[in-house]
Amino acid sequence: MNKKIFIAVCGILFSLGMQAQDIVLKGKELFGNLEARQIGPALMSGRIIDLENHPTNNKIIYAGTAGGGVWKSENAGASFVSVFDDHAQSIGAVAIDPSDPDNTVWVGTGEIWTRNSVSIGDGLYKSTDGGANWKKIGFENSERISSIEINPKNPNEVYVGVLGALWGDSEDRGVYKTTDGGKTWEKILYVNEKTGVNDLLMDPTDPNTLYAAMWEFRRTAWGFNSGGPSSALYKSTDAGKTWNKIHNGFPKGDLGRFAIAIAPSNPKTVFAVVESKEDKGLYRSDDAGANWKLLNGDFGLVVRPFYFSRLVVHPKNPDILVKGGLFGSISRDGGKTFKNLGNMHADIHDIVFDIDNPEAMYVGTDGGVYRSWDGGATMDMVDNLPLSQFYHISVDNEEPYNIYGGLQDNGSWWGPSSSPGGIEARDWKRVGVGDGFRVLRHPTKRIIYSEMQGAQNVWRYDIDKNYTKNVQPLSIKGEADLRFNWNAPMAISTHQPDRFYMGSQFLHISEDMGDNWKKISPDLTTNDPAKQDKESGGISTDKSGAETHTTIFTIAESPLDEKIIWVGTDDGNVQITKDGGKSWTNTVANIQGLPKNTWVYHIEASSHKKGAAYAVFDGHASGDMNTYVYKTEDFGQTWKSIATDDIVGFARNIQEDYVNEDLLFLGTEFGLFITIDGGKNWSRFTNNMPATAVHFIDLQKKTNDLVMGTHGRGVIIIDDISPLRQMSQEVLAKDVHFFDTKPFVIKEESGFGGGSTELQFVGDNPGSNAKLIYYLKKRHTFGKMTLVIQDQEGNEVASLVPGKAKGINVVDWNFRKKAPKVAAGKTFTFGGFTAPRIMAGEYKVVLKKGKKEFVSSITVQNDPTSLISAEERIAHQKTTKELFDDMEDLAYLVYRIDQNIKKSEELAKNDPASKKVTAAVIEELTSLKETLVVTTGDNYVNEAEPQLREKLSELYGEVAGQFEKPSRSQLENQEVLETKLSEAKATYEKITSKQVAKLNKYLEKNGKAPIELLEKAKFLSK
């Protein structure tokens, strides 16, 4: 081949290759300023893991949570703010450096109360500015850090206790020590790969003395084992160089989890609650652990030790100690007797005492943080911690739409996506108790289905009648007992509204909303007897139903064909029927790269193709933390993985967009991930979105809102994801692209909002403004950039501040023009801040970047529920415009008065001979001005009598703020005020023709500069 031809061909091929290469944006470059909003709720809050208070400032408290990160209070627990959003939200331990408590805080991630639904951590973090910023120190594979102890005399000496993996072996367990502030670490106590540190304590008077509680444990999807020969309590008196068991007086045989505590006021006194088969209970040592004596075996002390192993001694009184438990137990006689703490949410996990007030304490529960001022007798809940742990959520089609969901140990609820004044606690309504899971709204009736753990109850609730009926499927004589997952699956047909599905090991269907059931499948699980009916708990039997296995976990009816139903099981089967349940095919063998028996957490039947579906698998319950997401387009005959290295954390849920099948939303243990290209590339969404576990996602079809149920931060919503839906390679290649938007509606609302107090959490409402949404290929950094709204004739209606970020930009417009120019006065006039509202219609959006101009259009509509006629709207606009002009006429009049007075005062000061002419101008115009605007007093205490500006402004604000035509009273008042304005103008002209005219002659005669007055148009444009 000729050399020139060869080079030319290579050039063409290279050019084609470049053209074919996709533009890929990641993270904030893709999402720009598209933001999530967190709506809570907080009335049921969520599980607290660790409470820590500042050693010298009783106003500062930190709370580490199960799935909601770390929160800080600076007002003695009255309210908290989140300080850890960007990092793993599952917390094991928080520690405040006693030598630098205002600044240095350590956080170990990974929940340590090891129930079946716990999240995982990703290491150890440190802040040196009181929680404002964090740096990861290491321990990425620790999974769960239970303890952090800091030498009060040497902040560089820190000990970390690693509980480690819950679902598998781990050599990362043990006690670690650093002497250089975390740069390097030495493992100083390790037992084996099954035994971790569940608690580590330092003697408050001797930092060389340490106690380490080692716990052998393991959880599987179908069982839990607490205890074994490796569980033991160790002590070191040489800063961790050597360790010895201190079991003299403890029960013989295998032990389980310990709860240990040192009395700060008398460190020789040490307490331990010991899990054992015999003689379990509270032990006390008065010789620093050398000898132990059993004091108490009360149920409240020994119940569920894997979940309740926190023991706390009062900082000043060694006879007062508190033990976590179902209701919390407090002793005031050194552990001989106990009574329950005051009334609050059950399941008590941690307690701290106020450092100054001996009767004040703070308690962390499954339902949030509580405070007591009387030693635990009565409890007050902190109302602003939105830590609710949703397992599932769903939405309806009401306006505003409602969100439904079930919570860990906090029942089932439903509440609005928006509410006057924000979404308050009282907006949420209960529809279930216990551990709540799936909650579904009937598509056409005011009926809600809800359930509690293991389908113990499946409720059908009639909202209007306030009537509940239990409708769960029951075992039938002669047939197998039903096995329901702790998180039992429910589904409603999109084709037959009364059709209701539930899954045990069989698929059950009801055509009458649960009144009658029939099975339409055989056992769809592996039915492995080795994973069924095992005694769970280990040393302490714990058979709650949470470990029921080999069950159906997810049900998905195809929205395109009611005969196509997908079923996924917790033991790894992916079943499909294409004939309404007559025959079933297990397709899991067709999935390449998936470990056998991996939990099928969610199946999403496609809205675009009958044969298409997505399957999300979660292997963490077998120690597999990888991400598994697959798609089929041929009814499961073949599957392809759409998971990439971009995704962090094992996944639980996927949501396909209803319009663009390449737009997918994935919930993982560490947040939300989005792809716009069908899974080739994923990006983590972090705009006001914490790195919390996203357990379920739903997409509201009318609003295009993405609604997430998180396991630790409540419900989080991204309003209107339609810009992502429109993303394509064509769009990404443009310098600027305006996204299509639905017509915007001017809502006719003006209520007063709710009644929450300053310390209660209120969820954000969606914005009611028009949203101008556009994409920038590059961030705008140099040159002028403007964004204006124009009418169809090109007249400017409003000027807005443009977003300049790379990616998606969202700019709000409140449907208003510019506010009127207001006459200058001594005080504010609040009506002057009101801009006139536009009329419904078509408007241009004009974006200018340097010399380039980009134009789009939007449609604005009136509220479809409005009763206001077109004639009334015209009348409203007419009067608003007249009053607007009156406001600006008055402003221009006062401006001219002020300029004349100013010139006269300057002249009088510098030219005493001028006082004859200036005095008259000042006197006459000042007298006039005092009738036009307030010239004395202030805005509140020394308020002056209102003048023309204040009265006109108030009328204008009222009329411009309303939607209906002006009332007769308003029109009459307008006439009165406009008459006064006309009279004022006439008076000004009279003064101008006489006194000001004389002043001008004096200025001209003496060669002085004349009074300069801007033309009205120029003045108004300033």
Note the topology:
Blueprint: H1 3-20, H2 28-31, E1 36-40, E2 48-53, E3 61-65, E4 70-73, E5 81-82, E6 91-96, E7 105-109, E8 124-127, E9 135-138, E10 145-150, E11 158-162, E12 174-178, E13 186-189, E14 195-203, E15 206-220, E16 223-226, E17 232-236, E18 244-245, E19 255-262, E20 270-276, E21 281-285, E22 293-296, H3 299-302, E23 311-313, E24 321-323, E25 329-331, E26 339-340, E27 348-353, E28 361-365, E29 368-372, E30 380-381, E31 390-395, E32 402-407, E33 412-416, E34 429-432, E35 436-441, E36 447-452, E37 458-462, E38 467-470, E39 490-492, E40 500-503, E41 507-510, E42 518-519, E43 537-538, E44 552-557, E45 565-569, E46 574-577, E47 585-586, E48 599-605, E49 613-618, E50 628-632, E51 640-641, E52 651-656, E53 664-668, E54 671-675, E55 683-685, E56 694-700, E57 705-710, E58 715-718, H4 722-725, H5 729-732, E59 736-738, E60 744-746, E61 770-776, E62 785-790, E63 796-800, E64 807-813, E65 841-849, E66 852-862, H6 870-910, H7 915-929, H8 948-961, H9 968-1005, H10 1016-1021
Parallel strand pairs: 16-43, 60-66
Antiparallel strand pairs: 1-58, 2-3, 3-4, 4-5, 6-7, 7-8, 8-9, 10-11, 11-12, 12-13, 14-15, 15-16, 15-17, 17-18, 19-20, 20-21, 21-22, 23-24, 24-25, 25-26, 27-28, 28-29, 29-30, 31-32, 32-33, 33-34, 35-36, 36-37, 37-38, 39-40, 40-41, 41-42, 44-45, 45-46, 46-47, 48-49, 49-50, 50-51, 52-53, 53-54, ...
Helix pairs in contact: 6-7, 6-8, 6-9, 7-9, 8-9
